[in-house]
Amino acid sequence: MANRNTDIHSGAKGTEMAPERWWTLAVRGVLAIIFGLIALIWPAITLKALVIVFGVYALINGATTILGAFRDRPSGERGWLILSGLVSLAAGIAALVWPRITTLALIWLIGAWFLITGIVEIVGAVMRRKEVEGDWSMLLNGVLAALFGLILMLWPGAGAVALVALIAIFAIVLGAAMLVLAFRARHVTHHPGHRAHPMAA
């Protein structure tokens, strides 16, 4: 009986996420939605304004991700979170310190950011597949981001307004997916027993 209780406790602990993990995801999701809404409501947004909005979003997203990585995260998970945060910080800095960036260069920058972030998310999801068995949200999030990055990089010559609308819609979808994942993580954090399914004696 003692061994069975120990196994159940260990199983619940393995799937439990630290509290800061869910709120960092929530913050990133809200920021992505805000970024998407600004671009969608303001379709004639100037290139300079879009660069500033994207740069600020990428910086905050990167800082939040790295902050979550250094707060009681397992070493294996911490590495890919830091990498994801650094990529986001680099994209944000590049956007803000490159005042005369062209439309094509901006599209490539945003596309590369989505692609690299998506790949990092996919790697993180694969690394955590044993901890969160049956939860494909994070993997799907990474696949969508990577695919969108490829679309932007392979289709850079489309009209600026069309691309802004595309970026806006995807940012909103990605933000919503992050919020869903965040609240699922929060539920597991506060109700770890729900993931444990003890076998009958």
UniProtKB/TrEMBL annotation:
Superkingdom, taxonomy of origin: Bacteria
Coiled-coil annotated spans: none
Keyword terms of this UniProt record: Membrane, Transmembrane, Transmembrane helix
Spans through the membrane: 25-45, 51-70, 79-98, 104-126, 138-155, 161-183
Cellular compartments per GO CC: plasma membrane
Cross-referenced PANTHER family: PROTEIN HDED
Designated name of the protein: Membrane protein
Native organism: Acrocarpospora macrocephala
Lineage summary: Bacteria, Bacillati, Actinomycetota, Actinomycetes, Streptosporangiales
